[in-house]
Protein backbone atom coordinates (compact mmCIF):
# COMPACT_ATOMS: atom_id res chain seq x y z
CA UNK A 1 0.00 0.00 0.00
CA UNK A 2 1.41 3.40 -0.89
CA UNK A 3 0.90 6.63 1.02
CA UNK A 4 -1.17 4.91 3.66
CA UNK A 5 -2.50 7.02 6.50
CA UNK A 6 -2.58 5.03 9.71
CA UNK A 7 -4.88 5.59 12.63
CA UNK A 8 -3.90 4.86 16.19
CA UNK A 9 -4.46 1.37 17.47
CA UNK A 10 -8.01 0.74 18.56
CA UNK A 11 -8.39 -1.52 21.57
CA UNK A 12 -11.11 -4.14 21.20
CA UNK A 13 -11.45 -5.80 24.63
CA UNK A 14 -14.52 -7.84 23.67
CA UNK A 15 -16.36 -9.27 20.69
CA UNK A 16 -18.99 -6.56 21.24
CA UNK A 17 -16.28 -3.90 20.82
CA UNK A 18 -15.25 -5.46 17.50
CA UNK A 19 -18.88 -5.45 16.33
CA UNK A 20 -19.18 -1.81 17.44
CA UNK A 21 -16.09 -0.82 15.43
CA UNK A 22 -17.68 -2.43 12.38
CA UNK A 23 -20.85 -0.46 13.04
CA UNK A 24 -18.90 2.79 13.26
CA UNK A 25 -16.98 2.06 10.05
CA UNK A 26 -19.95 0.92 7.96
CA UNK A 27 -21.62 4.24 7.11
CA UNK A 28 -18.26 5.85 6.36
CA UNK A 29 -16.95 3.30 3.86
CA UNK A 30 -16.90 4.36 0.20
CA UNK A 31 -19.13 2.68 -2.40
CA UNK A 32 -17.82 0.97 -4.37
CA UNK A 33 -15.17 0.11 -1.87
CA UNK A 34 -12.83 -2.59 -0.63
CA UNK A 35 -11.71 -3.43 2.89
CA UNK A 36 -8.88 -5.85 3.57
CA UNK A 37 -9.18 -7.78 6.84
CA UNK A 38 -5.89 -9.20 8.12
CA UNK A 39 -5.10 -11.35 11.11
CA UNK A 40 -4.49 -14.88 12.26
CA UNK A 41 -7.26 -17.47 12.54
CA UNK A 42 -9.70 -16.33 15.23
CA UNK A 43 -8.45 -12.73 15.23
CA UNK A 44 -11.92 -11.30 14.65
CA UNK A 45 -12.02 -10.71 10.89
CA UNK A 46 -15.48 -12.21 10.44
CA UNK A 47 -16.75 -10.50 13.60
CA UNK A 48 -15.67 -7.13 12.21
CA UNK A 49 -17.29 -7.99 8.86
CA UNK A 50 -20.46 -8.96 10.74
CA UNK A 51 -20.50 -5.58 12.49
CA UNK A 52 -20.08 -3.74 9.19
CA UNK A 53 -22.77 -5.73 7.39
CA UNK A 54 -25.28 -5.51 10.26
CA UNK A 55 -24.86 -1.73 10.32
CA UNK A 56 -25.51 -1.67 6.57
CA UNK A 57 -28.86 -3.35 7.12
CA UNK A 58 -28.00 -6.97 6.35
CA UNK A 59 -30.51 -9.08 8.29
CA UNK A 60 -29.24 -12.49 7.11
CA UNK A 61 -26.87 -14.47 9.27
CA UNK A 62 -23.31 -13.31 8.53
CA UNK A 63 -21.02 -16.33 8.51
CA UNK A 64 -17.37 -16.91 7.81
CA UNK A 65 -16.75 -17.63 4.13
CA UNK A 66 -13.91 -20.02 4.97
CA UNK A 67 -15.54 -23.05 3.32
CA UNK A 68 -17.72 -21.31 0.73
CA UNK A 69 -15.00 -18.76 -0.15
CA UNK A 70 -17.68 -16.18 -0.97
CA UNK A 71 -20.78 -15.00 0.84
CA UNK A 72 -22.91 -12.27 -0.72
CA UNK A 73 -25.48 -10.14 1.03
CA UNK A 74 -27.99 -7.58 -0.21
CA UNK A 75 -29.53 -4.62 1.55
CA UNK A 76 -31.30 -1.55 0.18
CA UNK A 77 -30.37 -2.43 -3.40
CA UNK A 78 -26.65 -2.79 -2.62
CA UNK A 79 -24.59 -5.96 -2.91
CA UNK A 80 -21.91 -6.78 -0.39
CA UNK A 81 -19.33 -9.52 -0.89
CA UNK A 82 -17.46 -11.20 1.96
CA UNK A 83 -14.56 -13.18 0.57
CA UNK A 84 -12.08 -15.51 2.25
CA UNK A 85 -8.87 -15.84 0.24
CA UNK A 86 -7.29 -18.44 2.48
CA UNK A 87 -7.52 -20.70 -0.57
CA UNK A 88 -6.82 -20.01 -4.25
CA UNK A 89 -9.16 -17.29 -5.46
CA UNK A 90 -8.76 -17.11 -9.24
CA UNK A 91 -9.93 -20.68 -9.68
CA UNK A 92 -13.02 -20.02 -7.61
CA UNK A 93 -14.25 -17.18 -9.86
CA UNK A 94 -14.11 -14.58 -7.11
CA UNK A 95 -12.78 -11.84 -9.38
CA UNK A 96 -16.32 -11.31 -10.68
CA UNK A 97 -17.58 -10.74 -7.13
CA UNK A 98 -14.91 -8.10 -6.60
CA UNK A 99 -16.07 -6.23 -9.69
CA UNK A 100 -19.80 -6.50 -9.00
CA UNK A 101 -19.89 -5.50 -5.32
CA UNK A 102 -20.78 -2.18 -3.80
CA UNK A 103 -18.56 -3.11 -0.86
CA UNK A 104 -16.14 -6.01 -0.72
CA UNK A 105 -14.71 -7.32 2.57
CA UNK A 106 -11.67 -9.50 1.89
CA UNK A 107 -10.19 -11.82 4.49
CA UNK A 108 -6.61 -13.03 3.93
CA UNK A 109 -5.83 -10.50 1.13
CA UNK A 110 -2.13 -11.28 1.45
CA UNK A 111 -2.84 -14.69 -0.11
CA UNK A 112 -3.72 -13.16 -3.50
CA UNK A 113 -1.92 -10.85 -5.88
CA UNK A 114 -3.78 -8.41 -8.09
CA UNK A 115 -6.58 -7.40 -5.74
CA UNK A 116 -5.83 -3.73 -6.06
CA UNK A 117 -5.41 -1.20 -3.29
CA UNK A 118 -8.01 -1.39 -0.54
CA UNK A 119 -9.73 1.76 0.65
CA UNK A 120 -9.15 0.55 4.22
CA UNK A 121 -6.77 -2.10 5.50
CA UNK A 122 -7.57 -3.49 8.96
CA UNK A 123 -4.97 -5.55 10.81
CA UNK A 124 -6.33 -7.40 13.84
CA UNK A 125 -4.16 -9.04 16.46
CA UNK A 126 -4.30 -10.25 20.04
CA UNK A 127 -3.64 -7.58 22.67
CA UNK A 128 -1.10 -8.45 25.38
CA UNK A 129 -3.61 -7.68 28.14
CA UNK A 130 -6.41 -9.64 26.45
CA UNK A 131 -8.90 -8.84 23.76
CA UNK A 132 -7.72 -7.58 20.40
CA UNK A 133 -6.19 -4.54 18.76
CA UNK A 134 -7.17 -3.18 15.35
CA UNK A 135 -4.84 -1.01 13.29
CA UNK A 136 -6.57 0.77 10.42
CA UNK A 137 -4.76 2.25 7.42
CA UNK A 138 -6.12 4.06 4.39
CA UNK A 139 -4.92 3.06 0.94
CA UNK A 140 -6.97 5.57 -1.06
CA UNK A 141 -8.20 9.13 -0.68
CA UNK A 142 -11.71 7.78 -0.01
CA UNK A 143 -10.28 5.53 2.70
CA UNK A 144 -8.40 8.45 4.27
CA UNK A 145 -11.65 10.47 4.33
CA UNK A 146 -13.38 7.52 6.02
CA UNK A 147 -10.74 7.26 8.74
CA UNK A 148 -10.76 11.03 9.29
CA UNK A 149 -14.47 10.79 10.15
CA UNK A 150 -14.14 7.70 12.35
Automatic annotation (TrEMBL):
GO terms for cellular component: cytoplasm. One of its GO terms (molecular function) is metal ion binding. GO terms for biological process: tRNA threonylcarbamoyladenosine modification. Signal peptide: none annotated. It is found in: Cytoplasm. Its main location: cytoplasm. It comes from the Bacteria. Keywords: ATP-binding, Cytoplasm, Magnesium, Metal-binding, Nucleotide-binding, tRNA processing. It holds the Pfam family TsaE. Belongs to the TsaE family. PANTHER family: TRNA THREONYLCARBAMOYLADENOSINE BIOSYNTHESIS PROTEIN TSAE (PTHR33540). This is tRNA threonylcarbamoyladenosine biosynthesis protein TsaE. It comes from Candidatus Amphirhobacter heronislandensis. The gene is tsaE.
Amino acid sequence: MTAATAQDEIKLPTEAATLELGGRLAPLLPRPGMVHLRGELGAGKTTLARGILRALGVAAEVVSPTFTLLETYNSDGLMFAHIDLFQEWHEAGLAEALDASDLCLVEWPEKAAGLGTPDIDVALRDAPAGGRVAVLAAGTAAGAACLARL
